[in-house]
Amino acid sequence: MTATPLGSGPEFDRIRAIAAALGSSARGLGDDCAFVPTGNEWLALSTDVSVERVHFRREWLSLEEIGWRAAASALSDLAAAGAVEPVALAALTVPAGEGPDTFASLMRGVGAALAATGGVVIGGDLSKGEAIALAITVVGRARRVVGRRGAEPGDALWVTGALGGARAALTAWNAGRQPAAGARIRFAHPAPRLVAGRWLVEHGAKAMLDLSDGLAGDAKHLAAASGVALRIDLGTLPLDAAIGESGIDGEPAGFAAQGGEDYELLVAMPAAFRGTSEFPLTRIGEVSAGLGVTLTQDGRPVTLAGYDHFA
Amino acid sequence: MTATPLGSGPEFDRIRAIAAALGSSARGLGDDCAFVPTGNEWLALSTDVSVERVHFRREWLSLEEIGWRAAASALSDLAAAGAVEPVALAALTVPAGEGPDTFASLMRGVGAALAATGGVVIGGDLSKGEAIALAITVVGRARRVVGRRGAEPGDALWVTGALGGARAALTAWNAGRQPAAGARIRFAHPAPRLVAGRWLVEHGAKAMLDLSDGLAGDAKHLAAASGVALRIDLGTLPLDAAIGESGIDGEPAGFAAQGGEDYELLVAMPAAFRGTSEFPLTRIGEVSAGLGVTLTQDGRPVTLAGYDHFA
Fold first, then answer.
1. Which residue of A24, A237, B5, B51 shows the fewest CB atoms closer than 10 Å?
2. What is the value of pTM for the model shown?
3. Predicted local confidence at residue A307, as pLDDT
4. What is the CATH number of domain A31-142?
């Protein structure tokens, strides 16, 4: 497997530097999951780190929610691979002086997120450190390799669920307000889309990723990896009801397109695909020859910046 | 797979609290590796976190050495499972403001440790954070399940390599001195024993673990997990030459038995096993009915405390 072509931005600059340093001691970096063949199927593997004061604050979330969210973020990568039956390993770092209860509460959340997707925790490691950090590794079983590559001109772009809820919560917290209940739950308790991911793979998904950095930014990664151009009509985006309840300034579709950490799936499906009523799925654009992402509103191109943890 | 019986100490108090909190959403916690069946073999999985100012200091090691050591620590868990052909995922946390070179240097060390065991890096995640931390997850292929359980009365205890070298380096650094070259290399560049681990499993290993916390402490874990008593003759311990070069105060065998992070293997072999010249392997004791670990020196029992990250 050669390396997946990478999009732009400071995080991908780091991945590019790592890939160059590793040379032949790495394989297939830059996708949501790594795939390893086993018998007549594939194992999909992903690791995801959540760090206090970077990804969350203890004032915002309970320890159980911190654990759930960290695990859900990793599980969402499996969803983007159409992988199921997850097992997880959890490497926990907790400040010195915290007792067994802190570890137990964090892991109760991790375990609940696994259980909700039919999975179990099978191992881990513990350390002290200056802040809470959880590195969650998940392994699931996939029928075929689906990643960011594979979208082709003529495909249509679809997105699961609704966007912008998690950003509405973050916006409230950062402004010193409590978020609306619906927004808070989207941030604290995201539900990874494993059932939808598997269904989409079984129904012909050609390329898929989960929206962890926001649609505007993540779409660029899919376009770069597939070597195609994407056109997304912001007027068609499924907006989370929490955006309206949160009194956001400005244009809600642009807000939602830049909202990270919704953990919905963006998928390129064959042109003949007509949607489903199995789960919320909305057609938001199409794939064409070329490179890059064009966002339109009322037929006019608009420019938005994606969210990047290193920007 | 039921939970492995756990030894004593603050770290295991935390693991016990986690296992209680997780209930049925966990499986088989407390061993070096988790095992997942696949086709006609097993996958062995382990995750290991290395945190700046807890497991290492940047004044002691280059970034490449920090990466190597973090990966070697995880790979050593695979060695204890007799697993080979490792793949790795690396979750890196690095302070804000560090550029792509820091990530690349850390990962160059991770990649070199994988390459040295015939493995590759297949994925990862990047975050900023207050300190450097690496959570390395490794997956290898194992022919059967070998862990901390399985030692039986009549078995003999053997250890690979030599002990105490890494502790000699730590002792020097903590006293404000530069360690002797041999001690430094044992701490900075441990070589995980995958070849030996696989060989031992093929030759009848009944229980095995890697010495990350020190022989005195780790032997207690093997005894507790197997439900047996262990007797170790300190006079037979293979001592690292670096102990003598480092001018250690006191008794070298006791020093070596309490030295963490040598990443050698402690293994219970059937009584009929006669050793090997394939790699350094020393008989240091035996397994009997009962519980706990007895260390002897010149035939007399002695008491040593094991190293525990949370003690």
1. A24
2. 0.93
3. 43
4. 3.30.1330.10
